[in-house]
Amino acid sequence: MDKTKRIRHTVVFKLKHANGSSEERNFLTSASALSFIDGVENFELLKQISQKNSYDWGISMEFASQAIYDCYNQHPDHVTFVENRWLKEVDHFLEIDYQL
User: Fold this and answer.
1) Residue 37 in contact with residue 75, Cβ under 8 Å?
2) pLDDT in tens, the chain (100 residues)
3) How many CB atoms lie within 10 A of CB 72?
4) Is residue 25 within a helix (H) or strand (E), and if so which, with residue range?
5) CATH topology of domain 7-99
6) Which residue ranges make up each domain of the chain?
7) Model's pTM, two decimal places?
């Protein structure tokens, strides 16, 4: 793997909260705040509409290199979000990272 190539980090997920609920909106707002972490580029929060799977939402973001992606993963705001929100409120998910 070339550690100097761009990384696109993607995740699709289903929340434990009801669609359209205030809890869902609150979670999505918190997830969107990840876009302000240094190194995050092209952040998108996406509504998943395919009937071929049970996921409701997707997040996509890019990083200039593997090293910057690694810093994001260790950033205190990301770690706190995962521990306090993601692990408690996400029912199931699929994470895929691409080298661009």
Assistant:
1) yes
2) 777 899 999 999 999 999 999 999 999 999 999 999 999 999 999 999 999 999 999 999 999 999 999 999 999 999 999 999 999 999 999 999 999 9
3) 19
4) helix 22-32
5) Alpha-Beta Plaits (3.30.70)
6) 7-99
7) 0.93
